[in-house]
């Protein structure tokens, strides 16, 4: 039997003074133990959605239920089980790391637990920095402090708003490892990111939001199979002046002065690779020699840009 959702949003809407609709009738269910990636351009509504669940933004309408508690009437019980790593570094810069993280635990009414705080700091490679003031740390280390503060009260649901923004590639990989560890402990994670490779690598499901509307939600693999496409470039041994009639059934066109045949197809069917194989057989049957084939499958980024339809990059 499938577990009930850990978080349910029903027709969530937020209209700011002045008429800006940051969330537009958003409905979403989050499963226990999953990593859910929310993708969208700047101003799409990602941070507003997180703020609504975490009590930082008051929705205009709609319903939010977390752990069976209605967030409008029973907010405190649910909020104690929700952690937030915000996008902005808004922590007390003059505090030593260990004091800031311990204080976050106390804010949620939990008894002091030095061993748990040490475990968290060690898992984030912060133990050696525990007595340093936060202001003295690098940007990547400051972001790790934000994660430590969010983990201090042992949340079951963790929001990561742009967790790797402004950190280098090596630190980003370290963050991915930390997210994996959290998932292994049973923490449900919702992350926003403008590194789409992050969603492609980490997420179980992906949601795409734009102008406050949730455009689609699906399993990552199912989304890529359904909306992905195959692109193949076939280098021809001799240039063609025109496409032979036998190739008209394939979505192909001549490029580079007739020296290259480009296939773009498989949209929504996942059959692109099989069709490329059929195309090569047709070339052989027509006596058309070729010297090489390069194929690539759509990435999540290709699908994202295609869905937005205006070339915006995730942020």
CATH topology of the domain at 7-81 and 155-225: Rossmann fold
Helix content: 25-40%
Q: How would you name the CATH homologous superfamily of the domain at 7-81 and 155-225?
A: P-loop containing nucleotide triphosphate hydrolases
Which strand-content bin applies to the residues? 25-35%
What is the correct CATH architecture of the domain at 7-81 and 155-225?
3-Layer(aba) Sandwich
Order of helices and strands: EEEHEEHEHHHEHEHEEHEEEHEH
Overall shape: it is elongated
Structural category is: alpha/beta
Largest sheet: 6 strands, mixed
The strands making up the biggest β-sheet line up spatially as 6-7-8-3-9-10
Q: List how many beta strands DSSP finds.
A: 14
Tally of DSSP helical segments? 10
Tell me the name of the CATH class of the domain at 7-81 and 155-225: Alpha Beta
Measured distance between first and last alpha carbons: 37 Å
| Parts with pLDDT < 50 across at least 5 consecutive residues | 311-315
Which value, in Å, is the CA radius of gyration? 24 Å
- Average pLDDT, all residues: 85
